[in-house]
Specification:
It is a single chain. The chain is mainly alpha-helical. The termini are far apart. The protein has 13 helices and 4 strands. It is 74% helix and 3% strand. Helix 10 packs antiparallel against helix 13.
Length: 321
């Protein structure tokens, strides 16, 4: 019969095509469409992320301006003395905190970058599947250890060992937390660099082998240059993590602002100072209270410039390779 649909399995009830279309439209109206809801939820999360970032940066800027109404910005960046708690002659020169932060970050980079890159090269180019399954979870465990545990590890284990080799080393110093921060960020360098190297097409490796290159020559002269943008991003991300590390330097680094580059003496980093003030050593709306926002803004600018530098390097090498 023309224009009529008969249901199977012995059901004699007949439907016209027009009736079927009407029933389908009614079902769509009664059924809640999740597909239309998902884009709205994703847009909401994106807007919340942007608004949160704007709120954080706005708070830092607003409170920092209040601080610079009370303290000269020239003194803040040029003075080499940081004595905010002095009752008679308070000094707010951030240079000792910057030097302390850079000392820890530099030592961490010396530890993490060679070990992390060597681990990434082994996992990407030399390790068997079985070795990769064993080593990767161990790296992930290192990345999941709380930083307070790393801090006490630096103070109670690493420092006594270093004292045996360096008798002049103080109990609180820059060397011990720098090494432990380097250990902490090594999994980040290794994991992200290994991902970048693994993403290099296999045809590039095979082309190098076809030209007579050895495994080592292919890795050093072909794979590493091809993956340099990802490796650079992993190193910068890890160093940004080292700059912002708080608990390790607070526990094992000390609280003595020191503008010298001696790694054996007590130091204070920017994050350690923020922790010291935030624990209640300063009253609300005092100059010391607002100083933590100025220090936080300086820390924010450090990481911002590092990320911009990483993007510049990434774009440059992407154009070349």
């Amino acid at each position: 019969m023309k224009g009529v649909f008969r249901l199977p399995r012995g059901n004699d009830k007949e439907y016209s095509v027009q009736q079927m279309i009407i029933e389908k439209r009614l079902k769509k109206k009664n059924h809640f469409n999740f597909e239309k809801l998902i884009p709205g939820l994703l847009l909401l999360t994106a807007v919340l992320s942007v608004l949160t970032t704007i709120g954080i940066v706005s708070t830092l800027i607003f409170e920092t301006f209040i601080f610079f109404d009370r303290v000269s910005i020239i003194e803040f960046f040029t003075n080499k003395k940081w004595y905010p708690f002095s009752a008679t002659n308070a000094s707010f020169g951030i240079m000792p905190l910057v030097v302390g932060t850079l000392k820890v970050t530099g030592i961490a980079a010396i530890v993490a970058v060679p070990i992390g890159l060597a681990t990434a090269i082994y996992l990407s180019e030399y390790a068997s599947e079985r070795a990769r399954r064993i080593i990767k979870p161990i790296l992930e465990v290192l990345a999941g250890i709380p930083t307070i545990v790393y801090g006490f590890f630096a103070l109670t284990f690493v420092t006594p060992i270093l004292k045996q080799m360096i008798p002049s080393l103080e109990t609180f110093n820059a060397l011990s937390p720098g090494i432990v921060v380097g250990i902490m960020i090594t999994p980040m360098v290794a994991s992200l660099s290994e991902d970048a190297m693994s993403s290099v097409p296999r045809s590039i490796r095979e082309g190098a082998f076809a030209l007579g290159a050895t495994k080592l020559e292919t890795t050093i002269k072909v794979i590493l240059p091809a993956a340099v943008s990802g490796i650079t991003a992993s190193v910068v991300l890890a160093l940004s993590r080292a700059i912002g590390e708080t608990m390790i330097v607070s526990v094992a680094g000390g609280s003595t602002p020191n503008a010298s580059f001696d790694v054996t003496s007590s130091i204070q980093t920017m994050t350690a100072y923020i922790v010291q003030v935030s624990t209640g050593d300063a009253g609300y709306q005092t100059t010391i209270y607002y100083s933590i926002y100025a220090v936080g803004m300086t820390l924010f600018l450090f990481t911002l410039f590092m990320n911009l530098f990483a993007q510049f390097i990434t774009r440059k090498f992407k154009e070349e390779y």
